[in-house]
Amino acid sequence: MKKLYYRPQKISSASLLFLAALSIAVVIVLRHAPSRSQGLERLAGKAMHVPDLEQRMLRASERTAQAFEAIHCQRVSLGHKMLKVHDPANTGMIGPSMSMVTSLPGHLDAKLTSVNPNFAAVAIRLLVDAGVRPGDRIAIGCTGSFPALDIAVYTAAEAMDLRPVIISSAASSQFGANSPDMMWPDMEKLLYEQGIIQHRSEMISRGGFQDRAAGMSKDTLELLDASIHRSGLPLMDSTSDDDAIERRMLVYAQAVEDETYTVYINVGGGDASVGGTIGNDVLGEGLIRPMSKLSPRRLLGIGRETAAATARVATEDDPTGESSAGTATDCVATRFLASGVPVINMINVVKMADVYGLPICSTETIRPGEGGVYTIADLRRPLAVLGIVFIMLSTLLVVRPPARLVDAGKRRGWFGDDAKSQPQWMV
Length: 427
Known about the structure:
This protein is an alpha/beta fold. It is built from 17 helices and nine strands.
């Protein structure tokens, strides 16, 4: 008869209890083991070619917190009313629920979650994952909707010694940089003049619908233009969505001449930058890598880049969105992806906070250095592998001990002399 499996004819209850207790002990030890090891994290940093990665993340987060404080002081001096119901931690980074320059509704939970200086560390982690290294050229497109994330991306790029080319927009959704006298162009200028950030936008658009505040009132347009004028930076005055995309791509191309970008970072839901809400829904958050032409996902048409290119916008005249397919999410982000440049999309803040171990809608001020994002290499993972190997070896020793061990055990009286008490092959 063919052998089917091996089983010791007799394993004492004590042995089985020993294995069970050993397994439980290993699990308890692993659960309470430290998740961080400086030695392991240094090795991980060297493997990423950024050996001082943790120091860079901390430096960026501290600079972001400094920027929050500077903006808070400025808003206090301007006499802004910062309601506790909207900004319980009194950060000064949450704008009013409505104003003349508010472009779209915004989610307060997302805005509160974004006011965390440790998102600068998240941005650095994403940059490293994208293959960006110190000295690289990167492109940034941001709006006024998430000023805290804008600052986090700026400080992350500078802590990584990158050379960013930035195009921003002035309009903001609810609870963002939507105070008419303190919009994103004003914030960027303030932080630059105080030496907290070292880079500014190449140009600033009005933002909003079609990146030119289409549909907004004349008074609103004047407020947006006034903010851009106060910043001293040139206005990107486009005539349509396509024109806005072309103008942005031209600015990015002229800024680097023969160099290439290693990543494009989008913050917020700018129409030209990421295709607005539809583009964000299709692309999703975090790092988006371009797919090769031979990728199975691309051939099957299930990749995010492919989906973005074929997204449809339903209108009253075109309920199926057929006519808009292929053009609905033509934007700077998809053009970078099409040219082989990865995209980092800083959106869906609550989800990103959950992934990187950051608090959601905190009602307290969050300090730099807090959160799971600083765990570069989790020590418990290799320990878990060692624990599994240890349990398997222990089980093997108990269930099928080597002949030498059995003989030694017999000499010490651990096993009986009869055949039934010895391990044997079953049929």
